Amino acid sequence: MKTILHPAKTRGQANHGWLQSYHTFSFSAYFNPERMHFGALRVLNDDTVAPGMGFGTHPHQNMEIISIPLEGDLEHKDSMDNTAVIRAGDVQVLSAGTGITHSEYNKNKDQQVKFLQIWIVPNQQDVSPRYDQITLNVADRKNKLQQILSPSANDEGVWIHQNAWFHQTQLETGKELQYNLKEKEKNGVYVFVIDGSVTINGQSLTRRDGFGIWEVESLHIKSNDTTELLLMEVPMEM
Question: Tell me, what DSSP letter sits at residue 186?
Fold first, then answer.
C-alpha cells in the first residue's frame, strides 16, 4: 500500500476577488513540481464564485472536465449550443476532445456558488466534444457509496473517456464503509473530504484534506463526524 497526504492548508490558493480558488494540484499561477497529478487526476479545484460573476468564454482540448456543485447555481454555455444550470446534487461532464469553448457563471446576483472542478486525462485523444449532466438523488448516498461517474454510458452516473469511477457518500458519525477498487492492479483512489472528519485505512482526515492511496485492494472508511466524501478511482499510469 502506498499513500500520499495533501492537507487542506497545503493547497495552492488564488484570490481574484470575484473568485476564491484552492488548487490541490498545480494549476494556473500555482506550480508545485511534486503536485502535478495523481495518476490520471490532473486538476482538483475548490472554487467559490461571487454573485453574478464567473469564467468568461475559454477553450479546452483533450481533457475530461467534471463539475460538481456544492452550493448555489452555476450556469454553463458552450460552443455546442448547450446552455444549462447545475446545482448541488448535479454532476456535469464536458469531454473537450478536439476542442471546445465554454463559460461558467454564477447565475444568482445575491449568493455565491461553490463547486469542485476536476480534470481527468482521457484515454483517447481527439474525440468528438460532448456535454452531459445528471441530477442525482442525494438521499441515495446517505451512509453508502453512490456512484456518480464511470467509463460506461450504461452504468450509473455520467461517463468519461477513462477507466475511472467516482463515488460520493454522506456519513453519519461512527458509520463504516468499504470501497473495493474496480481495477486494483492499475488504479488508485484519491479521496477528497468535502466536509467532516474520517479515518481511511488508518489515516485521519478532516475537511478539505486530500488523500491518495494505491497498490491496495480496498479502503476501509470510518466517519468520526458527520462527513461528506468524494472518492475518485483513476488509473495510476496515463
Answer: T
Distance, CA of 227 to CA of 229 (rounded, Å): 7
**Distance between alpha carbon 128 and the CA centroid of its chain, in Å?**
22
In tens, the pLDDT along 34-80 reads 999 999 999 999 999 999 999 999 999 999 999 999 999 999 999 99
In the block, residue with C-alpha cell 475548490 = 46
74-107 pLDDT, tens per residue? 999 999 999 999 999 999 999 999 999 999 999 9
Class of domain 2-235: mainly beta
Distance of CA 217 to the CA centre of its chain: 22
Domain ranges of the chain: 2-235
> Residue 9 phi/psi, 5° resolution?
-70, -10
**Cβ of 201: how many Cβ atoms within 10 Å?**
16
Q: Is the Cα torsion angle 86, 80, 102, 118 positive or negative in sign?
A: positive
3-state secondary structure 67-103: EEEEECEEEEEECCCCEEEEECCEEEEEECCCCEEEE
Q: How far apart are CA 73 and CA 134, in angstroms?
A: 14
pTM: 0.97
Grid coordinates given for 234: 483513476
Q: Which residues contact 171 (CB under 8 A, 6 or more apart)?
A: 143, 177, 196, 198, 221, 223, 226, 227, 228, 229
Rounded CA-CA distance 151/155 in Å is: 8
* Pairwise CA distance, residues 14 & 19, whole Å: 8
Widest CA span in the chain:
48
